[in-house]
Amino acid sequence: MKCPFCSSENTRVIDSRPADDNNSIRRRRLCDDCGKRFTTYEKVETIPLIVIKKDNIREQYDRSKIEAGVLRACHKRPISADQITKLVDEVEVEIFNREEKEIPSTVIGEILMDKLKDLDSVAYVRFASVYREFKDVNTFMNELKKMLG
Length: 149
Prior knowledge:
This protein is of the alpha+beta class.
């Protein structure tokens, strides 16, 4: 590891510990040449996940798209930012635990709806109305009956 101060490659680790997110390791390093200390973070490299959209177009997985959909569904609901982050984290863990290189967007949508149903019923119906593309009031009512019954 190069020293950011003098560019020497003569550095060593003096302390290691898990970072705040528990998904990376924080390392304190010391440059043997200039004597300055600096911090580095080590993280596991993940294989990029490809999402297969409804029209069969493939694109790289983007967490922000899931966050945006959940934020829209939860707009003006009594749901904290921490709850939203936790929900998106849970969805992401479930997606990546499948260890597949490609995943249909429909699978992501179903996982997300299951999590939203447990979090807030109004947010769930909002998300489902867009995701399932309700065409009229009857399909909307059928979804509500499933929830109530």
